[in-house]
Each structure stands twice: as structure tokens, then as C-alpha cells.
Hints:
Number of strands: 9
Strand order of the largest sheet: 1-9-8-2-5-6-7
Distance between the termini: 25 Å
Oligomer: single chain
Number of helices: 1
Helix content: 10-25%
Amino acid sequence: MEKTIEMTGIEAMQWAREISKIPQGDFTICFFPYSRIQGMAGEKMIVKEHCKWRTQLPQDCFKVDAENFFLFEDQEGNPKMCYRILIRYMGFPQDGYKLHKINWL
């Protein structure tokens, strides 16, 4: 049985930023969506492949500290964001996008 690869949330954020600097560099991210209207996280995890880290855009407006969010572009280049704490797995190209469990504690 294969052992789950774990990494800290801080490491994962750093890897995503650095890999996104490479022209063909991208990553896979798996997270629970958060509904501001309902005030709770969804039950079904979202998987986005071929994403790139991005910086904050002028239209990005946060009611909570921006450090709570992870900003990225999806495969089509659309700006997306999610709460960092709701990210469960990330995959990177150097190991064939094998999903790493993200440990936030």
C-alpha cells in the first residue's frame, strides 16, 4: 500500500508560486469551496488541474485578511481563489502530479 505524501500548507504555497514562474509550470489543487452566502464550506471537493499561482487583482476585494486566501488561475486563465485552510491536496509536475496531502497544523 502506498504511503500518503504530506507537506505543510506553507511548503505547498511556496512550491505553487515557484513552479508558476516556469513557462510550462502548473499544479493541481483540490479544495472544498466556500459559500459566502451560506457561510459554510461545501461537502464536495473541487479539483482544478493545470493551475498557476497569481497575484491579487485590483477587483479582488476581501472582507477578511487576504492572507487567508490562495489566489490562482485555472486552466483557462480565469482568476480563482479559495480559502487556504480548505485546500486538502496539491499535485506538482516533478512527481507526475501525484497528490500531496496538505497539512495546515
